[in-house]
Amino acid sequence: MNKIPNLSDSSCFTPACSAQGFCAAEAFSKSDTLNSAAAQTLLRPGKSAEKSLNLTSENSLNFAAQNSLNLDPQSAAASQSAKLYQKPIVVITGGEPMLHHKEALFYEFVCELLARGHAVHFETNGTILVDFENFPAYKSCVFAISPKLSNSAEPRGRRLSFAVLRNLKQNAKDSFYKFVISPEFDAQPEIAEILAACESEVYCMPRSADRRELESAAQFCVDFCLKNGYNYSDRLHIRIWGEKDGV
Asked: Could you say which of 16, 110, 131, 220 is the most buried, measured as most Cβ atoms within 10 Å of its Cβ?
């Protein structure tokens, strides 16, 4: 992972972020839908920025060419990023990142990102009850919630918690749902149940592992979104690189 300098002069962040277990960051836009494009670069635990590039829009190509997410203020990337119209959104993903939300270093990292003016988004499955009162910085963050559906084969009690969904909806700066859709499974009844318990905006993306599957699933997903009034989110990294690892 790229080196992050010691930020001891910050009231929110004291140690350097050297842990590789959870410092995952990606620049992302919530509006990766039919209406607008999103830029996304991803740092997954244990992978370098160069091996973790994940682009989800045409605009990302230019963005990625200019930025490596190296937070060293003396780096060339920092100089280039200063020319950006706005700071990239940082999305913390996983695994399940909210398992770490009470850990000091994790929380301080989020505080520092917010202090630097970055918008912070989390990718979560919506099963971890976030302690917003004792960790109030999370109230300034956006949560992309992907509850697992019954086709995941996970027991209902482990994959779905309406209390957690309501907690995120009531306390986060913003939240929205993101579901993976495929022709083999009718997701609408379960999505409707979730929305009845805790309403929020819905994004759907086609289930696919390669270009062939994406081509066959994309039209179904688009039709599903148009029928139900949801937002469509594509998988441009698969369209560009197919099954290649590390993107």
From this structure: 110
Task: Please check whether residue 187 is in contact with residue 179, taking contact to mean a CB–CB distance below 8 angstroms.
Answer: yes
Q: Is the pLDDT of residue 117 over 60?
A: yes
Those residues with Cβ within 8 angstroms of residue 61's Cβ, 6 or more apart along the chain or in another chain: 55
The average pLDDT across 125-146 equals 98
What does the alpha-carbon distance between residue 232 and residue 171 come to, in Å, rounded to a whole number?
Answer: 26
CATH value at residue 45: 3.80.30.10
Residue 210 in any domain: the answer is yes
Whole-angstrom distance, CA of residue 88 vs CA of residue 84: 8
Nearest to 161 by CA among 193, 126, 122: 126
- Assign 82 a pLDDT band (cuts: 50, 70, 90): low
Number of domains within the chain? 1
Nearest Cα neighbor of 7 from 136, 97, 154, 114 is 114
Q: Is residue 5 part of a domain?
A: no
d(CA 146, CA 164): 12
- The answer to whether residues 107 and 4 touch, using CB atoms and an 8 Å cutoff, is no
Q: Report how far apart the first and last C-alpha atoms of the chain are (Å, whole number).
A: 15
Cα–Cα dist 43/129, whole Å: 25
Q: Is 190 helix (H, G, I), strand (E, B) or coil?
A: helix
Report the mean per-residue pLDDT for the chain: 75
Q: Which two tokens stand for residue 136?
A: 């109030």
Domain that holds residue 88: 25-241
SS3 label, residue 178: strand
Is 0.85 surpassed by the pTM of this model? no
Residues β-bridged to residue 174? 142
Q: Are 181 and 147 in contact (CB under 8 A)?
A: no
